[in-house]
What does this fold into?
Amino acid sequence: MMGRGSLWLPLLVLFVLAGLSFWIERTVQPPGAGADIDHVDPEGIMEDFDALRTDAAGNPQYRLSAVRLKHYSGSKQTELEAPHFVQLDKQAGDVTATAKLANVSPDGNEVDLRGDVVVVRAATPRQSAMTLRSARLLVFPERNLLRSPGAVEVTDRSMTLHAGAMEYRADPRIVKLTGRVKARYISQAK
It folds into this structure.
């Protein structure tokens, strides 16, 4: 019996020392070391955020605003609550996009809108207003591109259509619909 007890004592001492070493290592490390704390606690928060982008001549291109903006330094991620994006175009009409949430890429070249996304193209003398609804919309402001990877509904004065996905290129004004596309044309009686 003495032989067995003498074997357990050194093992018990080793386990106690290992536990003590682990505890000391944890207590001397700075808070958050090794943890992804950047996504839990934002580096900065702005209320009633509003930014305007202009071209080299100073003409407004687009405006992005939100109820609250949160920026995380480690991931360089920016989150927006209740975002409101407006692409300003005097000739073709403004395009406005709203949602519940959005993420902005670190370089600002991609805005991911999620939750009750609504896009409205303003009416012009040549065309009626158009509304797009989707659960998610990717906006690429520098490329004048809107992309909805999921189901969309598009309505204007003369039509209603549903599609599995959509891509809209603003420069050539081309809409590409994919998936099951269903359109209903509403005749405008004069």
Q: What stands out?
A: Residues 22 and 28 are 10 Å apart (CA to CA).
